[in-house]
Each structure stands twice: as C-alpha cells, then as structure tokens.
Design goal:
Layout (H helix, E strand, L loop, with lengths): L1 H15 L10 H28 L3 H40 L13 H29 L5 H16 L6 H16 L1 H4 L6 E2 L3 E3 L1 H4 L9 E9 L4 E7 L9 E8 L4 H6 L5 H4 L1 E2 L2 E2 L1 H15 L10 E5 L5 E6 L4 E11 L6 E3 L13 E4 L1 H14 L6 H12 L6 H12 L12 H18 L32 H5 L1 H26 L7 H4 L1
Parallel strand pairs: 3-10
Antiparallel strand pairs: 1-3, 2-3, 4-5, 5-12, 6-7, 8-9, 9-10, 10-11, 11-12
Helix pairs in contact: 1-2, 1-3, 2-4, 5-17, 13-14, 14-15, 15-17
Organism: Pipra filicauda (Wire-tailed manakin)
Protein name: Inositol 1,4,5-trisphosphate receptor-interacting protein-like 1
Keywords: Signal
C-alpha cells in the first residue's frame, strides 16, 4: 500500500509541475492548468480514501494485494508510461501557447471541470473581442493594412525624433534685438554699421533640425550704413564657381570736417574695411566686443550666462541657465534692395572665403517658403519629418543638409499639400530618394530660389531672379569623377538605411531602427 501511495504522489508531483520549455503561457491556459490540477488533486484524494476503506473488506484486501503484486512487477514500465504521457502533454501545451488563437483543450468527462473551463473560455472570448475592438478602432473598420503601415511610419518618426523648440525662436530674435539696441550707448556719434531687426533662418526656424542633440539657432542681423556712408554690392567673379559672391564697397558721402576730426578713430572706413570694402572678420570682431560690453545692460543677464565663442565669420553665443543651454550663431548681412535676398558673412561650404567676400544667401526667402507651406499643410503633415529623417540618415556625407532641403522644397512646390499627410510619409520619402537618384544621374540639382518660375509670390525676389539660369548645386560632381562615385555610394547607403527602417516598421519593431537613424 505504501508503494502505491508513493507512486500516486510521484505522479501528482509530475503533473503539478510539468517542465514546459519555450515561451510563457497565456492567462487562459494557466487558468485551465490550475483548474485541471485542482480536479486531479480531488481525484487523487478520492482514490486514496477508497483504497484505505477497501482495507476493511476482505475482497478488496485481496484486490489490493493483487494490485500491489502487479505494481511490484510493472512499476518501472508504469513510470515510463506516465512520463511519456507528461512529455506529450508538455509538448501540446508548448505548441498551444505559441498559437495566436489556440482552441480550448479537450474537455474532461467531469461535468464540474467542463463548467469551469466554459467560464475560462468565456473570459478569453471577452478579451479577444476587446482586443479586436481596439484593433478595429486603431486601424479603421475596413482594415486597410497599406495605410496602416504608412501611418505607423509617420508615428514612429514623430515619436522618436527630437524636434527644435520652435517657441524659443521668438525669444532668441528678441534677445538679439535687445542686445543690438544696447549697442546704442556705445555707438552714439560714431560711424559704425547700424544693426537692424534680427531675422531667424535655417533649419531650427523652419521647424526641423539635422542634429540629434544640440540645435543651433541661426540669426541674420542686417547691417545698414551709418550716416554719411553708403553700401554698394559688387559681384566677385574670382570665385570660379556657380553661386554669387559679392564685395560690399563702402563709400563716404559728405560729412562735416569737424565731425570727421572729432571721430577719426571711429570711422567705418578706418576700422572695419579693407581697401574700402567691408571686412567680414573685422565686422565679426567688432560685434563680438560690443556684445560682451552690452550684455550686462540687458535684464536677461540676471537669468542667463553669456559665453561668446571664437568664430571667424560669425558671432557664436552660448546661453546657459540652471535648466537649459542653447547656441545662437549670429550672421551679418546686407540686403539687396527691398527683397528677401541678402549677402551674408556665412562662408561657402568646404571652401575658403576671403574676408572681403560676402556670399549671397537665400536663407530668409527659404524660411518664408517654409512658413508659407506651414499655413497650407494639413495638421498631420509629414514634410518636416521626412526632411529631418533624410538629414539624420544621409546628411553630413556626400549630401549636405542643404542638398536634401533643396530636394524637399522642389517636391513641396510640385506635389499638392493634401498629399503630405502622415499616411503619405512612405511615398514622399521614396519620391525624395528618386529625385536624388535622378539628380545624381544627371549630375545636376537646380537651386530652388533662382530661376524658379513657380515660387510663391509671398517671397520677395529681385525682378531678374526668375529669368536667370539656376545654379547647379551638383556642379562639383560633374567636375570630379571620384566625388561622383562617392556620392553614388552614399546614395546606396542612404537607401539601405531607409529600407532598414521600412522593414522594422512593417515588422512592428519600431524601437529597433531608432538608434542607427538618429
């Protein structure tokens, strides 16, 4: 009798703790196993009680002796059989746990167990119906999987990429205006350029940023000539490349002789010019000194620490308080007539720019174009998200951020804004890649502002701009075969990274590509 009890306890232990290898069981399956375990415990208890009671009856005693003898002879094979059954049960449970919508296990003959399992199945059905309802609300009643993939891509970009703080833009331009107004204490009765109202431009003011962490805010400060002076823009033809460079010639008109003698050391021609041309580096040094001297007069100085960083052609300011820190690059410019086109102190990319050369910049016109697009774009527009993703994935190699922005502006100017919603994100990215591929094949990418007949009228351009031949931003690829080969390799790299992103989004692994893209 004791051996039989030991055998029963051994079987009970193995049933209670089956060694299931693989994924965890779902909640419904665990409930079924717990109820089956309870039922088997009851059956084991009943069997033991019947065996104990049978010891009082001679006939049953004989049956127990016979059973004991049989178990003594076949206990080894019985244990093997029980273990085989348990392994089969474990395999079945493992297979069932990996099925998304597994059917209920086979019902036991006991009516109580059937009722308990019906209750569990009812809970499982309610959970499945709730999940189905959530999926239907999430993806729409029609279950358009293609639109869901595109919307998922838009959501991933929106949630995983850090965006510049646009509300800070007005604060920054107001700060620079306060700083230049404080110059008046030092500039009174002196012949220095007069700073005008600051204009925010560049990616941070357009609503996107190619950088992952430290966003740089670019601000243009137009300069007007001081009293008794004029500025004349003269084209610089010595650059030997597409795009326009200018020199700012300073002319002095009639100034009283007594005033000249009194302010001889403050004359613009003497201090900030080289051979009668406004010098970028001297102007930058002058502005940097004035910023340091005037900062303490501003109320912002009580809450912010100002650090003026060294720079040859711009005044770079680092502003820090107890909570945050950001960088402002102040560029200087001279306006062409009353248009949105300026010559600026910003240097040409990858080229040495002489100190008396002021390259033409279209940053103000481009910022106004993005503002025009923002007023027409749908609430869930993806154009800035696509641009930022392209810049993070492929910018900084053969393709500058300005190249990718130019492609995006061409597409924005030709594709209706109704087709820039979140669900169109994938298609717009593919079209951007196709535009870049065609431009590489032709070794030509036209400037957006010059020679564009369809530019919005809200942008003020010089009258002759729309009739000019647009400069080729890929002129260097036509001149240098090695640069063209490198650009094609970088295009393949960019396409591969975006393909990785699409694959991850389609596989619902949206967290996987976050690190490499950013």
């Amino acid at each position: 009798m004791e051996a039989l009890i030991v055998l029963v306890l051994l079987v009970q232990t193995l049933i209670q703790y089956p060694h299931v290898v693989g994924d965890g069981l779902d909640e419904a399956t665990r409930l079924r196993m717990e109820m089956r375990e309870k039922y088997l415990n009851q059956e084991m208890t009943r069997l033991l009680q019947e065996l104990e009671q049978s010891s009082l009856e001679p006939g049953v005693r004989a049956w127990g002796a016979l059973l004991w003898a049989t178990l003594e002879q076949w206990h080894f094979w019985a244990l093997l059989g029980v273990l085989g059954l348990l392994l089969a049960l474990a395999f079945s449970l493992r297979k069932r746990s990996r099925e998304p919508h597994g059917s209920a296990p086979q019902e036991n003959a006991s009516s109580n167990l059937e009722a308990q399992e019906d209750q569990v199945n009812g809970r499982a059905n309610v959970e499945e119906n709730n999940a189905a309802g959530r999926e239907e609300r999430k993806y729409g009643a029609n279950g358009d999987q293609e639109q869901d993939r595109d919307s998922k891509l838009g959501r991933f970009i929106e949630e995983s990429i850090r965006w510049p703080v646009l509300d800070r833009g007005c604060v920054i331009t107001d700060l620079i205006d306060d700083l230049t107004r404080a110059f008046g204490h030092h500039l009174s009765n002196r012949f220095y350029p007069v700073p005008q109202q600051a204009i925010g431009m560049g990616s941070a003011f357009e609503g996107w940023s190619p950088r992952k962490e430290d966003v740089v805010y670019h601000v243009l400060v137009p300069l007007s000539p001081p009293p008794g002076h004029t500025f004349h823009l003269e084209p610089n033809t010595a650059a030997g490349m597409p795009g326009k460079d200018f020199c700012v010639r300073v002319e002095q008109v009639h100034i009283p002789e007594e005033k000249l003698r009194r302010n001889k050391n403050s004359i613009l021609l003497y201090n900030l010019c080289t051979r009668s041309y406004l010098d970028v580096e001297k102007t930058t040094l002058w502005f940097r000194l004035m910023a340091r001297a005037s900062w303490s007069r501003l109320p912002q100085s009580k809450h912010w620490r100002l650090r003026v960083l060294p720079s040859r052609r711009s005044c770079t300011l680092r502003l820090t308080n107890n909570r945050e820190s950001f960088c402002v690059e102040v560029l200087f410019g001279v306006q062409q007539g009353n248009s949105d086109i300026y010559v600026s102190s910003q240097s040409r990319e990858a080229l040495f720019t002489p100190s008396t050369v002021w390259p033409e910049t279209y940053g103000v016109a481009e910022m106004k174009f993005f503002s025009h697009i923002a007023r027409q774009a749908p609430p869930d527009s993806c154009h800035l998200r696509c641009l930022q993703l392209l810049a993070r994935a492929g910018g900084g190699r053969a393709f500058s951020n300005y190249t990718l922005k130019t492609i995006m502006m061409h597409l924005l100017n030709t594709i209706p804004m109704a087709q820039w919603g979140r669900r169109h994100c994938r298609q717009r990215l593919l079209e951007s890649l196709d535009y870049l591929r065609c431009s590489l094949q032709k070794k030509r990418l036209d400037c957006f502002v010059i020679g564009n007949q369809s530019i919005p009228p809200q942008i003020d351009l010089p009258p002759h701009f729309q009739t000019l031949q647009p400069p080729n931003l890929f002129w260097h690829l036509a001149q240098d075969p090695d640069a063209h080969r490198e650009a094609r390799q970088d295009f393949s790299f960019l396409r591969y990274r975006l393909k990785q992103l699409f694959t991850a989004i389609d596989g619902e692994a949206s967290s996987a590509p976050g690190a490499p893209i950013a």
